[in-house]
Write a sequence for this structure.
């Protein structure tokens, strides 16, 4: 399961829950986010913030700052 597929209910971190809610609320009101194939910089940024928060909230995972996340596909 990827971080994007993980729901807020599966995380125990308030920041991850808040980040998920912000991403969903933005996507619900954003025409670009709801249009297949369209790009939304804000939506992508919010989703990356949620993915990072969910990754940090997973038990047994050490937080490292020396690993760079892969660039998003375009």
């Amino acid at each position: 399961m990827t971080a994007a597929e993980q729901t807020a209910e599966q995380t125990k971190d308030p920041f991850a829950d808040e980040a998920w809610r912000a991403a969903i609320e933005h996507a619900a009101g954003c025409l670009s986010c709801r249009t297949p194939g369209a790009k939304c910089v804000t939506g992508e940024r919010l989703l990356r913030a949620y993915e990072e928060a969910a990754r940090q909230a997973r038990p047994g995972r050490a937080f490292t700052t020396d690993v760079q996340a892969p660039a998003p596909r375009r």
User: Anything to note?
Assistant: Residues 56 and 62 are 8 Å apart (CA to CA). The radius of gyration is 13 Å. Residues 41-57 form the longest helix (17 residues). DSSP finds three helices and no strands in the chain.
